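QA checklist item 7 of 12: single-chain prediction sanity check.
[x] sequence parsed
[x] length recorded as 169
[x] structure emitted
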Amino acid sequence: MANRLARGRPMAALVLSEDERFYLERQVRRHRVARSLSDRCRIVLACGEGLQSKVVAERLGICERTVGKWRRRFLEGRIDGLLDEPRSGRPRTIADDEVAAVIERTLQTLPADATHWSIRSMAAAVGHSHTTIRRIWNAFGLQPHRSQTFNLSRDPAETAAATCQPCSR
């Protein structure tokens, strides 16, 4: 009924199933969801109420073209249409199994000449650049120089000096 009274280009009716509505509402309420996905879900929910794009844009404080874009993408691909599409750019040069190997090596092993891995020592050991190792460690929150327990030095000279010299008092 609202579409017949509206002027301009006719809109396709956006009807949400119960499962789709539940998913969209859950994404809007979640704390750890990308802001862009949350905004897209809000747009689709408002469009699912039968509102015009102009009204949805005004209510959410976004551009009318943005509302039209996500309405169209939802109608074409439903929930999957709201997800980000692959973007252009340089493809990844390091595979997931290589990233997993770096993480495992960081957490499970120690270098031969130190008490913990540094970015540059790990880079030399695995054959990647130090910036790649830094990105991996930052992405996974790894900080090998900060440990939960006290680490004794593995330097034999330092260990001998600490145990062999009597106290002067």
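[x] summary fact logged: The mean pLDDT is 79.
[ ] second reviewer sign-off
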